[in-house]
Amino acid sequence: MRTVDIVVPCYNEAEMLEMFHEKVSQVVGKIPGYEFTFYLVDDGSRDETLSIMERLAEKDKRVKYISFSRNFGKESAMYAGLKATTGDLVVIIDADLQHPPELIPEMLKAIDEEGYDTCSARRVSREGGPKIRSWFARAFYRLINRMSEVEIVDGAVDFRMMNRAMVDAILELPEVQRFSKGIFSWVGFKTKWIEFKNIERIAGETKWSFWSLLKYAISGITAFTTVPLRLATVCGVTISVSAFIYLMIELIKNLVT
Ligand code: UDP
Ligand code: MG
Question: Fewer CB near the terminus (10 Å): N or C of the chain?
């Protein structure tokens, strides 16, 4: 029996959580030969998310949960979830059903039959989202891919299954400002990409404002490229050199006249 852990970052997902649990249970219930465990991570929710987790854990022995003292952000929730897992395979998935659980069997096949270490989902259309947001997202991917050595795939989402070796490699990274999309790529490993069409949220709302996304994008850029640093160095050197030349010119002028 292979064990698979399902890591779910949850922030204010009271409206979605039961539906999510039911849907995923349905999907994984049909997969023989694997034992699944849910690791629900409550990222300091202010709604009923935690009490729903407690209820689910009572009802379903496969459900475990972690609760944060405050909202630390999705990256921290994913990290804590991964750290708690012990299974042979781990899949990270959003609680809002925007990541179709129907892809889980395909992910299992990629790793256990086709010899990949990890299988990740890629959203191929951004239909439904605000236009300006998808424009910024595309610009971000172009920018970060041009500047950094790790490749960050456009449309890649944090819906990914990994084997234990990859999970351990990720957990070894002591990054504080985590940018998982970059980390998944940076650790290497043989990756299979599977595509899916954008799905709208059924209930609840997105936790990302434009500004929080922009901040996240900047943390991704500073974590995976030294270009901004090099740029600052070049600017600094240019200014110092010009100041020095100017000083010399002024000195000589003074001496001559
Ligand atoms: N999430 C989280 N902490 C946060 C924000 C979001 O754990 O501070 C979770 C959220 O509950 C969901 C996933 O991360 O399961 C993705 O969030 P969301 O659906 O808001 O993002 P979007 O799909 O709009 O990119
Ligand atoms: Mg979502």
Answer: C
Quick one: tokens of 26?
């349905």
* Amino acid sitting at position 117: D
Distance CA 202, CA 96 (A): 7
Q: Whose CA is nearest to atom 2 of ligand 1?
A: 74
Distance of alpha carbon 85 from alpha carbon 216, whole angstroms: 25
Q: What is the whole-number distance in angstroms between the Cα of residue 156 and the centre of ligand 2? A: 13
d(CA 31, CA 23): 14
Q: What is the pLDDT of residues 113-156, one digit of tens each?
A: 999 999 999 988 766 667 777 788 888 888 888 888 788 888 88
Minimum-distance ligand to the CA of 13?
1
Ligand 1 within 6 A of 13 CB?
yes
Distances from the Cα of 16 to the Cα of 10, 69, 125, 158, 205, angstroms: 10, 21, 23, 18, 10
Q: Is 15 in the pocket of ligand 1 (CB under 6 A)?
A: no
Q: How does strand 156-163 pair with strand 118-123?
A: antiparallel
- Nearest-CA residue for atom 19 of ligand 1: 206
**Minimal-distance CA residue to ligand 1 atom 23:** 206
Determine whether 52 is exposed, middle or buried from the number of CB atoms within 10 Å of its CB (0-12, 13-18, 19+): buried
How many alpha carbons lie under 13 Å from residue 49 in its C-beta half-sphere? 25
- Residue 164 · residue 89 · CB < 8 Å: yes
Q: Per-residue pLDDT tens for 90-114?
A: 999 999 999 999 999 999 999 999 9
